[in-house]
Amino acid sequence: MNWLARLGAVALDQLRGWGHAALFFVELGKALPAALRRPMLLVEQMYAIGNRSLIIILASGMAVGFVLALQMYYALVRYGAADSLGLVVNLALVRELGPVVTALLYAGRAGTSLTAEIGLMKAGEQIAALELMAVDPRQRVLAPRLAAGLLSMPLLAVLFSAIGILGAWVVAVLLIGVDTGNFWSIQQSGVDIWRDIGNGIVKSFVFGVACTVVALYQGYETEATPEGVAYATTRTVVISSLWVLGMDFVLTALMFSTP
Description:
Blueprint: H1 2-36, H2 39-49, H3 54-76, H4 85-123, H5 126-132, H6 137-176, H7 180-190, H8 193-220, H9 226-255
Helix pairs in contact: 1-6, 2-6, 3-4, 3-6, 4-6, 4-7, 4-8, 4-9, 6-8, 8-9
């Protein structure tokens, strides 16, 4: 029965870790209002998290728009539905690709940066120094970064989708020859602001919560060694990506299950 005992020990360790992470999330949520009372610190973190991720978001959005327009045109023209190219590209971006790809890029760029920053602060005993001075590191260090992530992710997702649609227009109209009036008019008539764009923004907000909390938790709970920080940054990307992909399926099933 040794294997059963080991299996039980592993299961208990996993449950203990999930419980600790859940308590961390609750405590961080309680500290969030304090971050909103420090607007300059919030703006500084939004610049570090959002603005410094802007280049890769815009470049990736443009590339995805290029490829999506080509692939969709080759598929739609086979069935005589090339006039629907603009609508298909728009829905694919605002519903799925915009929030999901932005979240994955955010986890790889901003998430690892947050984990490394918090991990190095812990390794340099800056977190311990704040606690000795009776300053709650969750309110002073973690909460402003969480608030910045929550605000930055939807904005980045909107910019990703917008630049992707622009890239699709370049390929469809300027290279392929699709009528520009049809390209835009079918989007205006077929895209619902609340159902399509609104749900995409909600998705990006949820992904922002998941990616930012995972990054902060991994940095805050990492071992105070260079190896520990390196492992924590790797875990941030892996765990955040799995959460994004899993939650995307659940949110899509809930949001778009009814016509």
